Amino acid sequence: MVHISDGILDPLLWESGWVITAIILAYTLSKMKIEDVPKLSVITAAVFVASLIHFQFGPTSVHFILNGFAGVTLGLLAYPCIFVALVLQCFLFQHGGVTTIGINTINMGVPALLAYLLFKYGMRFDLGIKQKEILFGTLGGGIAVALAVLFLSIELATTGEEFFEVAIFVATAHIPIIAIEAIFTGITAGFLATVQPELLCRR
Amino acid sequence: MISEIDRYAGLSSPIHRWDPRLRIVSILALIFSVVLLYNLTLVTIGMIFSIILVYLSKIPFSFVLDRLKLVFVLVLPFFLIIPFTTMGTDTGVEIARFYGITLSYRGIEAVGFAAMIVLKALTSVMLIFPMIGTSRMDITIKALEGLHLPNKLVQMFAFTYRYIFVLDDEFVRTERSLASRGFKRRGDLYTLTTVSKAIAMLFVKSYERADRVFYAMRSKGYSGKVVTLHEFDSGRQDWINAIAVFGFAVLLQVAAMSGAFSIYGGI
Amino acid sequence: MAAIRVHDLNYTYPDGTAALRNVSFVIEEGESVALVGPNGAGKSTLLLHLNGILHSTESREAVEILSETVDPKKVHKMPKKIGIVFQNPDDMLFMPLLGDDVAFGPINLGVAKEEVKRRVKDSLDLVGLAGYEERVSHHLSGGEKKRAAIATVLSMEPEIIALDEPTANLDPKSRAELIDILRRLKGAGKTLIIITHDVNAIPELADRVIVLDKTVVADGTTREVFSDTETLLAAGLEVPTIMQFFEVLQAFGYPCDVLPLSVEGAARNLTQTMEEGAGHIHLHLHEHTHREVNSALGKYRHHHRIAADSGHP
Amino acid sequence: MAAIRVHDLNYTYPDGTAALRNVSFVIEEGESVALVGPNGAGKSTLLLHLNGILHSTESREAVEILSETVDPKKVHKMPKKIGIVFQNPDDMLFMPLLGDDVAFGPINLGVAKEEVKRRVKDSLDLVGLAGYEERVSHHLSGGEKKRAAIATVLSMEPEIIALDEPTANLDPKSRAELIDILRRLKGAGKTLIIITHDVNAIPELADRVIVLDKTVVADGTTREVFSDTETLLAAGLEVPTIMQFFEVLQAFGYPCDVLPLSVEGAARNLTQTMEEGAGHIHLHLHEHTHREVNSALGKYRHHHRIAADSGHP
Ligand SMILES: Nc1ncnc2c1ncn2[C@@H]1O[C@H](COP(=O)(O)OP(=O)(O)OP(=O)(O)O)[C@@H](O)[C@H]1O
Ligand SMILES: Nc1ncnc2c1ncn2[C@@H]1O[C@H](COP(=O)(O)OP(=O)(O)OP(=O)(O)O)[C@@H](O)[C@H]1O
Ligand SMILES: [Mg+2]
Ligand SMILES: [Mg+2]
Q1: Which is the most buried residue in B11, C306, D146, D171, by most CB within 10 A?
Q2: Which chains touch B (3 or more CB pairs under 8 A)?
Q3: Is the pLDDT of residue A22 over 90?
């Protein structure tokens, strides 16, 4: 649901989406070592597969979005990974649109980067609790999705007054997803901290 | 199990024979052009042209329609909501009011606008089939390299695509093992916790697999660049196809700017 | 009572691969059965039908477990009856701690907390991993993981246990220990169905062998199936090494009708033959020995002459 | 010239697991060596040192391949000398098409295009996958994937080929075919180093066995190593089935000093013994037979008595 289909947004919005995504991509790709490609690809594939999982929670059926999770595990490189995942999702499953890949990447990727920063700096605080990963994982996961939905709603709302109600509808529909992602990211961050700490991005 | 977009890549059609590089660029141009239109008639013409392309590609319509269903479900709310909602009531007839939201009917214009959005979304997705579905995904990815996309990005596409299938299998096996130990997905916290842990484990395993894959690549002489034997060549027919499709995309824009086909002004 | 009854089971994967065709067999309670067949024969596919994970509309009532038709909607109720150990233990271990993994099944079955704890302990004891509750499953060695996966199924205390290639990738000692665990389960009266490519382990594990190659091509006691070399070879299989060797011995004039399958069986066979033959056995070269030996060796054409190894200096 | 020279190699994983300790051995060109050891012995870890993928500062010059010290910075130059086949073929088949996977190595080595094509074809032919260039690797069967992984290494035409558990999970026929491929490579003069848990395959594959258990605990000809049962058992290993059985035969009075390792070797051993013993062999029960048989059986304590199997009706 967080992907925007073609033809809905104002052209100016999705055109600038491409420009901004191209800039962030260029920057993050320059930070990426060629040796990282296999590792990032396999994790991207895992994010991709996991985000196909439909999940019945209460009355709603949702699927994971995992942008917060990508940020927490991949750091800056979450951005190109989300881009690749969205492109493949569009072309393999027709989720989302072609022209909107740029703006969709911003909607998912920028919150992912913020989740990463939150997690990274959060972990530096000495809170006197044992598993800080769970706390900051939960925060990062929840905030990343909340921001993605916020971006989406703003974009819809500014496209035209026709979309204002749609924006509100979309935002409300995502509230349970925010909760689920928060719990998910918290649990996985705690899990990784015990099983494979190097997978959590603290750089 | 993930079903594949390139299931019908093995067919033979003019579209299949078209150089993938030119095919991707031309059809992509067409998609952008259609989405940029704000004119129901032109969008409809674009849609008809797309249907012709799908027909030429010999990809069964049943396959395309099956995939379009999902898009339709996603854009349908717009079709239903837009004609009936607005912020003020000055442009439409109020039908009902609840929780402070006003339901009103804004007439034929709004219906046309909603139809246009739905058509654009469907057209652009439909064009994906002749664009991507007519050659195997790996050839398509190689074509991206031929189009001078950054090497790192092309490699990420290639590896990600490859491992989606491996990891999907892996997750299916995990799900089966969950089920065979009495687990049933319900809408509760226990389910969420369990699924989360299973996914976390998928990541841990993927991470380690990535290490081994990288080791394997290195021991096969990988030093940062993936090169393959595949070569593309574009002949006269490829360029004729490209000019036809690209030309059509440009034509749509020219028509839109000239104001022809305009039914109702503003939109 | 029949533990497993499969009647005319067919299965085709969504991509059109026909994996199972008209599969039928019955396994009684307390039997231990080896399921063998070449790669891609549909063995794992068959296993997944036993608790309803895989199913098809064409074979709606094809599988009965403990006299009850398997209902694909009730997979989660099946573990009380049948537990399945997957080939790859990594697919079965997804909790941070091993104790959680072993407790997972019983908790889903709604077993009371104290009882869960007891079962976790007992299952880990049985597979030789006592005290491993707090270990991170992901860091165990290959052999340990394999045993852990079995413990996760044992804790559900199923009547029937089905295992997919339990000895693959194990070192000989771990393999022997695993065979031991399986024999103990068999001793405790469980019904076992074991998929394996390890023909030398079958005589130790199973009373009966079913050969699957999309359909059931042979089904009988271990001895019967291993006597039908033609069917076995046609399915890309082999008989145990000792059995191959006793065919060679026969060519040298060793008197025996029924070939032993394992080293222990062979020792007992020799003793019995001698006791019947007045305390000794006489092997000799005769006119046709050479030809017969070669034909016995050639039968298992997979194998090749090794110049260096005659055991003579 | 030494193909592989490992001198005092130590390796500890970043998490503190000491995987290799003072490992030293030399393998000459043209030798074929089996590397055995229990699960977690460090076999795979050792393999990854052979071309510099894994390395540690403490053992900087510990590995020499074809008389040149392995430089971890030049891993990508190594495939001309040594090719490594990983245990899991999924890790080795990462390109979209099988043909690309097989071409991957030679292209990276800068081989000319026509030559690459020839090599791809030849390698696929050799492993019995002729015409599979255009196949998608994730749709191959287990056995096919395994062979494909070997082809991706053969195409680089390395002098030395190292394989990690090449026969695991294969059905007996595919296993025999794989053994055949390896024997052909050996015949073609390649140096082979093969990690395996499959002791019955070793006599067919290797002239020499190295037993690793974090450090080298035994190293000698196949026969020598298999004669040292104590060391083997201590490392959780076993001798081939036929050898176990010939110890039993000895207890029955079979005269032989050197035990055969395979069925073929056993047949030749019998023929030779008879020829030396005037055309016949005499086996008999004597006072100590029973005790000796039991002690021979008990030696490989991994195995257990099977009541049903004596080969007598
Ligand atoms: N998910 C799937 N989709 C399509 N085909 C499949 C799938 N899983 C298995 N197959 C095919 O079904 C057939 C039977 O597969 P199965 O895994 O049951 O074989 P198996 O007897 O267990 O082989 P192995 O000894 O190699 O484990 C094979 O041809 C296989 O390629
Ligand atoms: N990436 C890793 N990080 C930490 N420890 C590891 C890693 N890989 C392996 N180990 C440990 O190092 C030891 C040697 O592992 P290795 O994989 O080399 O064993 P092996 O002899 O190949 O065993 P097997 O027969 O089970 O394949 C084991 O104790 C293993 O748990
Ligand atoms: Mg199987
Ligand atoms: Mg190993």
Answers
A1: D146
A2: A, C, D
A3: yes
pLDDT, tens digit, 9 for 90 and up, residues B134-173: 988 878 888 888 888 888 899 899 889 888 988 888 888 8
At C228, give phi and psi (nearest 5°).
-90, 70
Domain span at residue C271 reads 241-310
Is C96 within 8 Å of A196 when comparing Cβ atoms? no
CB < 8 Å to C142, chain B: none
**Together in a domain, D24 and D54:** yes
Half-sphere exposure of C191 (CA within 13 A, CB side): 20
pLDDT, tens digit (0-9, with 9 covering 90-100), for C109-143:
999 999 999 999 999 998 889 889 888 888 888 88
Residues β-bridged to residue B94: B104
Determine, yes or no, domain membership for D235. no
| pLDDT value, residue B98 | 54
Q: Is C17 in the pocket of ligand 1 (CB under 6 A)?
A: yes
Domain count of the fold of chain D: 2
Kindly report the average pLDDT of chain C as a whole number.
87
DSSP for B76-141 reads HHHHHHGGGB-SSSTTSEEEEEETTEEEEE--HHHHHHHHHHHHHHHHHHHHHHHHHTTS-HHHHH
Which ligand has the minimum distance to the alpha carbon of residue D40? 2
State the complex-level ipTM.
0.84
Please state the atom number of ligand 1 nearest to the C-alpha of residue C45.
18
Q: Which domain CATH number covers D140?
A: 3.40.50.300
pLDDT of residue C59: 85
Asked if CATH classification 3.40.50.150 holds for the domain at A11-199, the reply, yes or no, is no
**D-contacting chains (≥3 CB pairs under 8 Å):** B, C
Backbone angles phi, psi at B143, to 5 degrees: -60, -35
- Contact yes or no for B225/B151 (Cβ under 8 A): yes
Low-confidence ranges of chain D (pLDDT < 50): 302-308, 313
Alpha-carbon distance B250 to nearest alpha carbon in chain A (angstroms): 16
pTM assigned to the model: 0.85
* Residues D171 and D206 occupy one common structural domain: yes
Backbone angles phi, psi at D18, to 5 degrees: -80, 110
With a 6 Å cutoff on the Cβ, whether C41 touches ligand 1 is yes
**Where is mean pLDDT largest: A2-6, B205-209, C263-267?**
B205-209
